[in-house]
Amino acid sequence: MTMLIGQMLGCLIVAAGIGGAVGWLLRHLSAGPLTQQLMDVTATLRLKDQALEKLQYELKVKVSANQILEGKIIASEALHQSTLQELSSRHERIHALQEELTGTKQRLSTLESEQAALLAGVSDSEAAMSAQAAVVRESKAALEAAQQALALKEQELLPLQERLAALEHHPADTDRLRTRIQELEPAQGRVHWLEVQLSERDMQHRTALHEIERQLAERDRKIDELEPLHQQMREQEAAGDAWKAKYTQAVQQATDEAARFQKICIQVDDLQAQLTLHEQRLREKDDHIATLQRHIDAFESLQVEMAGQAKKVDEKEEEISRLRKRLGEVRAALRIRTDGGVAPHPVQPAGDQLSLQIAQTKPSTAPPKDDLKQIRGIGPAFERVLNDMGIVTFRQVAQWDTTDLKRIADKLDTVPDRIKRDKWIAGAKKLYEQKYGKRL
Predict the structure, then answer these.
(1) CA atoms within 13 A on the CB side of 289
(2) Is the pTM of the predicted complex or chain greater than 0.85?
(3) Is the pLDDT of residue 374 over 90?
(4) Which of 32, 45, 345, 356 is the one with CA 20 to 30 A from 371?
């Protein structure tokens, strides 16, 4: 960049030197060397135009590279957005899986509580059955004891009955035996009462056993009903383990995606830094282009000035040829006068006669002249052409319209867009207001 600025400064110095040399040559040399110098300057300007075109091509290449970089950045942003959407969808899926897992855990806890209640009921039934079994065992033990006592009594009665049968033939023994039987009758009634009590207890125990068997059957039925629930609970636990594995895998994938997203963010930051660097370079290029545009404007002004100088050179050459012709006629007349002859009166056009008459001065009615070079984009050459057209004030420039712009651009050998771009009309209005204190 420094080398390019140095080259541009060198070009400006060379252009200034060329302009000075052309001015000096215009003042001191004839038209032939001036034409050669003008051709050299034109060739130099062409070289500068080629260099400018080359710089413009390099700028276009940089702009295309910047557009490619912007496309990459846009693609990275699109990938970033898609990654964010995918992460959000995966987070939603994970949230749904967590809710489903929570519901499954709640159902499992409900089933476990129901199973615990059933097991508690079964344990209570077993305790009641064990208590009733103990009562039955006690009743059986009492029944067995009563049966043994009854068997003993019957065994005791057998000898007595035998003795009664033997003593039937003996009345005294019979009476004694009857007395003994009367004594034993209360014990027999008590045995009968014990038998009735035993039968009642046996009936109660049978009812209790039947109820216990019914409760056991109900418990077995409930256990059979709980078997599928238990199997379902195992399946739910297996599904929960699977969901846990999937959740762990999803979390791992989300972590990986976050790492990838972090890498993409770093790449985007790098691309953003590169884009900022490229934008800075583009701004430098824009400044460089603006500088080149100013140089081009200066070169165009120089071209217009050279064209004006060439036109003046042609006028000077015509005037010199006319003066030479007149000088030859004057010399011929002087030679004839010196020889004593009569000098012929050459017929000259009225416009070609040499006159020393002093024209009578007239009061000037022209408006005061302003320095048009103060307007941005107007150089000495443009000011000279505008003055030749009768445009010498800021007010005249400020009152231009579209037709005037086209006509003046044709006279200045430029385009109307340049006048619009440099804002000659606005600049003239501003300078007029600053100089005269009035607004147009």
Answers:
(1) 14
(2) no
(3) yes
(4) 45
